[in-house]
Design a protein that fits this description.
68% of the residues lie in helices and 0% in strands. It has 17 helices and no strands.
Length: 265
């Protein structure tokens, strides 16, 4: 969409209302309407207008509340929601999106691991989201998805991202101790050669988990060789892997900053 077109739409609340009504009512032109919304919110200035000068969260909540367990929403609509959540995760949690997405995840709805979980992970970046993640025992929920032998996923990228964002509180980190093989599961996922983002988040998650000395001890005992034999899929990933290895091989209670210079491992 041309920038002039974006500016024209965001200047007209009446036109925005009409576009959202098409989506809320699931009218024939819903795919086109959602594509317009995704293109709009992809522009920072337009996203900020929708957030600050238009009741975008209420509109989005109306869409998902109409049928929380709907099997399908267009991919562009999920992208539009992600754009908004990146700016205001705390407000979205308070608006009810945490409960909406959690119910969909619990129900294992179609493609929940790609769309619902990505938005859920964005909510867990906020303090309010992290508190609720702890309250619902989110670690147990994500661990269950990782270990479910009857429902293998084609990617666990957003499961890892949700854990990475959700375990920032001490309470949730302590809960991770009760899933002793979690670091091993994550280390195995880091060997995936098809997903650079997931690999990087695996390295970062292992580092976060290792803040608990007993988890660091287990990670060092069971995951070190896996990580040594794993190759970073990008320079950034390789740097994160090297730093993780260096940190794991230091004393358990070491808390100073990591090396700035990467290691040749």
């Amino acid at each position: 969409m041309h920038l002039n077109g974006v500016h024209q739409i965001v200047r007209s609340n009446r036109l925005l209302d009409q576009i959202y009504e098409i989506v809320i009512n699931r009218e024939t032109h819903m795919p086109k309407a959602t594509k317009i919304l995704a293109l709009l919110s992809g522009q920072p200035a337009a996203s900020l207008y929708l957030i600050n000068s238009y009741n975008v969260l209420d509109k989005l909540k109306s869409i998902w509340s109409r049928d929380i367990c709907a099997l399908y929403y267009p991919e562009d609509l999920w992208l539009h929601l992600q754009h908004i959540l990146e700016y205001i995760p705390n407000e979205a949690v308070k608006c009810g999106f945490f409960e909406i997405l959690y119910k969909r995840i619990k129900g294992r709805l179609f493609q929940f691991h790609q769309f619902d979980l990505k938005c859920f992970a964005l909510l867990c970046r906020s303090e309010e989201g992290q508190q609720r993640f702890g309250a619902i025992d989110g670690v147990k929920e994500m661990y269950g998805i990782l270990k479910d032998p009857l429902a293998k996923l084609n990617t666990y990228e957003n499961v890892v991202l949700t854990l990475m964002n959700g375990i920032m509180s001490k309470q949730v980190l302590w809960r991770c101790r009760e899933f002793p093989d979690l670091p091993l599961v994550i280390a195995e996922l880091s060997r995936d050669t098809t997903n650079s983002n997931m690999q990087l988040w695996c390295f970062q998650l292992l580092r976060e988990l290792g803040e608990m000395p007993c988890i660091k001890r287990f990670t060092r005992a069971t995951c070190l060789e896996i990580l040594k034999n794993c190759k970073g899929l990008s320079l950034k990933n390789e740097g994160a892997r090297s730093e993780l290895l260096y940190w794991l091989q230091r004393e358990l209670y070491h808390t100073t900053n990591l090396r700035l210079k990467s290691l040749d491992i």
